[in-house]
Design goal:
Elements lengths: L5 H16 L6 H11 L5 H9 L2 H11 L13 H8 L1 H16 L10 H21 L5 H10 L3 H8 L1 H13 L3 H9 L3 H11 L4 H8 L11 H16 L16 H5 L5 H9 L2 H12 L1
Helix pairs in contact: 1-11, 2-6, 3-5, 5-6, 6-8, 7-8, 7-14, 8-13, 8-14, 9-10, 9-12, 10-11, 12-13, 13-14
Length: 289
């Protein structure tokens, strides 16, 4: 593949992704839940019953609702209560995000541990929501979805470009940046691949741009703040060494976030992140229960 031009690699990758676009995307339960959430006459009890038919979906929603970082004021033990306290629109966003992750999930192997990936994604999503709110930006729910989906391109590469995934991992072990190696191997990095798929799922532009620029938030035209928040949450998992994902080894802080998020210095960013250490640890412990 190394003798192909960048354009040829991109064409080949797009061809594979065009088939991914056409795959059945949502489970039947998730599709029905999404339709129910679009119907203003839907009541909480019926919605809760439908979500309860998919135990994996129900468990993940309760896990999110009870996250120390998500910040709900009391323990949530039922789906009905989760719907009431989180709200229909945010529940819908969560269902869509979980549907995307589920649709592109592959079996765990030595190259990608699905549990580790899920924990990192959920921690980044919950942290992004909390960070946005703590900094005074009214984009907590949106930041959660973008944070949850920020690395969507990685399991897509693992599932649909598995030989290339192995090659990327091996080359990264030898030394090198994952993003650069992904682009060399496939013509695109996981950010761009994630953006392709989020656009096909008709996610709002801000989510698509954040997924596409979570390593370089200064490049996000319409979503610089949300991209910076997700980048900071992602970086925090590395800085605190809690819930990190090996694909981000060596992740550097994009210093543009200082101006975008109104930090005075890198030291101020580090101090801010350190303040989340106990919450991050509680988050991981909650996930493992």
């Amino acid at each position: 593949m190394s003798d192909q031009t960048l354009e040829q690699k991109q064409k080949k990758t797009k061809l594979v992704l065009s088939n991914v676009y056409n795959l059945p995307s949502m489970s039947q339960v998730m599709m029905e839940v999404s339709n129910m959430l679009d119907n203003p006459t839907t009541n909480t009890a019926k919605l809760g019953q439908m979500i309860g038919k998919d135990q994996g979906l129900a468990t993940k929603i309760l896990s999110i609702a009870n996250s120390p970082l998500y910040g709900l004021p009391r323990k949530v033990t039922t789906i009905d209560f989760a719907i009431l306290i989180i709200g229909y629109q945010d529940i819908k966003n969560i269902v869509i995000a979980l549907s995307m992750i589920e649709s592109f999930k592959n079996k765990t192997d030595k190259y990608l541990d699905q549990k580790e990936f899920w924990m990192h994604s959920l921690l980044t999503g919950n942290a992004a929501k909390r960070i946005a709110e703590d900094l005074g930006f009214r984009i907590g729910s949106e930041s959660f979805v973008s944070g949850l989906l920020h690395d969507l391109g990685i399991p897509v590469i693992h599932k649909y470009f598995h030989t290339d995934f192995i090659e990327i991992v091996n080359k990264a072990v030898e030394g090198g940046n994952h993003l650069q190696i992904e682009t060399y191997q496939l013509g695109y990095d996981h950010q761009t691949i994630g953006k392709f798929l989020s656009e096909k799922w008709n996610l709002p532009l801000a989510h698509c741009n954040t997924i596409a620029n979570h390593h370089q938030p200064h490049l996000a035209e319409e979503s610089k703040v949300m991209s910076s928040v997700v980048h900071l949450a992602d970086y925090a998992t590395q800085k605190l060494n809690i819930g990190k994902f090996y694909w981000d080894n060596g992740l550097q802080l994009d210093e543009s976030v200082l101006e975008i998020l109104k930090f005075e210095s890198i030291e101020a960013v580090d101090k801010f992140i350190l303040g989340y250490k106990d919450l991050f640890q509680k988050e991981i412990e909650t996930m493992q229960i």
